[in-house]
Amino acid sequence: MSLRIALLGLLEAIGPASGYDLAKKFEHSLNHVWQAGHTQIYPELVKMAADGLVAVESEGARGRKIYTITPEGTRELHTWLVEHQPAVTVRSETALQAFLLPLLDTDEAIAVVERIRTGFEERLAVLQCHPKDGVGAYAAKLGLSHVRAGLAWAEETLADLRR
Amino acid sequence: MSLRIALLGLLEAIGPASGYDLAKKFEHSLNHVWQAGHTQIYPELVKMAADGLVAVESEGARGRKIYTITPEGTRELHTWLVEHQPAVTVRSETALQAFLLPLLDTDEAIAVVERIRTGFEERLAVLQCHPKDGVGAYAAKLGLSHVRAGLAWAEETLADLRR
DNA sequence: GGGATCATGTAACGAGTTACATGATTTG
DNA sequence: CAAATCATGTAACTCGTTACATGATCCC
């Protein structure tokens, strides 16, 4: 369901686009929000076209298919945004390592947390490159505050483990 | 893979347990870290037993099967904790709504963010009930800081939208 | 011409969800 | 004795990943 919404939202926000374009967006701006590769996106667009949520507007060079959102698609998107209570499904390998930290020796645990911290630092660097306005600006801010919280946790935990 | 690790980690941390016990743990302490229902856990334990990572220690009343982690399971768990670089796969409906916020009218957007804030408040209340020590204490702290960051984002965004 | 990038797809597999099914034991 | 909880499972389905396959166009 959410993959559909993400695709509809992108088409609504950036206008007509190909599956390839949409896949690129997932890789970059949508990366910290929802993940999907082209192998999931292409078939989904076909299904959505069958359901009348999007339509192929034109076919360009190299078999490029430009999809547009239909009025029905816009309605579906709007309803979801306004009415859907977001489900919280956490599946974080980082949190899992944090959970199991007490099973390790102190020095091993320190090494693990340092690696986690490095991961957060890398994500921070990526997020800081995001534009400060346009669609996705609010999501980028949310992502930033999450990563900063993670970094603070890492520092705190390291201090705790070293004591 | 991570489901296995979570199960091994729980068996290592709390000692021998049944699938049912493990499912309960997922529902409560592991809830903000990794999610899995009994329909996923039971078959996975069977596979893990076939792979020699866990073993059925005894069978109790009502067909209750007590699983123990084997030395091989402990090894597998330890290796993953120490060597595995956690993958970051974000799939957050909340972040998706945040991403698409600019597609809504201001008053609709405000309502959406208020609902998101309520969600964070509920999670905060749950996390604050978690014990402050034992396995999972570090993960609980990480979860708390994530939720607090989310709450701060919601407040900030509401202020921004109302301006 | 050759490598990078554009552009689309399929197939097999693994992970996760929902619905269904069954029966034992405990507690009010 | 009825309802709640304990306890395990299967089947069908959807979602997501990995690997494979193909060909066009652009730029050096």
Q: How would you characterize the overall build of this protein?
A:
The structure is a homodimer of 163-residue chains. Chain A is mostly helical and 163 residues long. The first copy, chain A, has seven helices and three strands; from the N terminus they run αβααββαααα. A three-stranded antiparallel sheet of chain A has the order 1-3-2. In chain A, strand 2 (54-59) and strand 3 form a beta hairpin. In chain A, helix 2 (19-27) packs across helix 3. The N and C termini of chain A lie far apart (47 Å). Chains A and B meet through helix 1, helix 4, helix 5, helix 6 and helix 7 of A and helix 1, helix 4, helix 5, helix 6 and helix 7 of B. The structure holds a DNA duplex (28 and 28 nucleotides).
What labels describe this entry?
homodimer; DNA-binding; 3 strands; mainly alpha; 163 residues
Whole-number mean pLDDT of chain A: 96
Shape of chain A: elongated
The number of E-state strands of chain A comes to: 3
Q: What is Rg of chain A? A: 20 Å
- The succession of helices and strands of chain A, N to C, reads HEHHEEHHHH
Number of helices of chain A: 7
Distance between the termini of chain A: 47 Å
Name the quaternary structure: homodimer
**Main sheet: strand order of chain A:** 1-3-2
Biggest interface and which pair forms it? A-B, 62 and 62 residues
> Into which percentage range does the β-strand content of chain A fall?
5-15%
The helical percent of chain A reads: 55-70%
Q: Low-confidence segments of chain A, ≥5 residues, pLDDT <50?
A: none
Instruction: Quickly give the structural class of chain A.
Output: mainly alpha
Most strands sheet of chain A: 3 strands, antiparallel
